[in-house]
Specification:
2 strands, two-stranded antiparallel ribbon
């Protein structure tokens, strides 16, 4: 009977190992992994969507050209590079000076014309910087896409393993129930045997 109980328990452990059934804190490891991957995938999809929206806006601004309103839109609610921000500060300072000098010396004054020429050069530089920034954003977006696709594959595999493990759990519960039954029967028999042995020993001692 003891051998049967041991064999039944060994069958449980062998089945767990064969079907990769591992649990921590009462939860199947495959289920935990699937849950963790799903949480990470949600965050990754949000990041990919953000990069996609940013790239679309940059492309729209670039296609429209280097107008003042368009370049201003590039810094309104849109993260840009430090170089672009520096160029914009230079442009704003020149624009302030151009407005002041136009009022004082007239729009056709050589110094004012030179300021406008410099402003146009900076607008062109700002647009070029936006193009470089858009290319970097595109690379980030494509990388995020690949990572998202890889994470989706991992999640699909984890869910598949979880389902397989859940099906194996049915057989495992049957084996565990059988092992528990053998163990309880063995323990009960052993207790009765020990009780009988003690009574027999006590009876023999009284007769002696």
């Amino acid at each position: 009977m003891g051998a049967q109980a041991t064999a039944a328990q060994r069958a449980v452990e062998e089945f767990k190992a064969k079907n990769n059934i591992v649990s921590t804190d009462g939860k199947l490891l495959d289920d935990q992994q699937a849950g963790e991957l799903n949480s990470r995938l949600v965050a990754m999809r949000a990041q990919t969507a953000d990069l996609s929206a940013r790239l679309s806006r940059l492309k729209s601004i670039i296609s429209t050209g280097s107008t003042d309103a368009n370049l201003e839109a590039a810094v309104t609610g849109l993260e840009t590079s430090a170089i672009f921000t520096g160029l914009r500060q230079q442009y704003l300072e020149l624009a302030r000076r151009e407005s002041d000098w136009s009022a004082r010396f007239g729009r056709d004054h050589l110094a004012v014309v030179n300021l406008r020429t410099r402003m146009q050069e900076i607008r062109t530089s700002m647009l070029e910087e936006l193009r470089r920034y858009a290319e970097a954003t595109k690379n980030d977006y494509e990388l995020a896409q690949r990572r998202q696709e890889d994470m989706e594959k991992q999640l699909t595999n984890a869910v598949s393993r979880s389902r397989t493990t859940s099906q194996a759990q049915v057989t495992l519960r049957e084996l565990e129930s059988s092992a528990t039954g053998y163990r309880n029967l063995y323990d009960s028999f052993l207790q009765r045997y020990m009780g009988s042995a003690q009574q027999e020993t006590f009876r023999l001692r009284r007769r002696g």
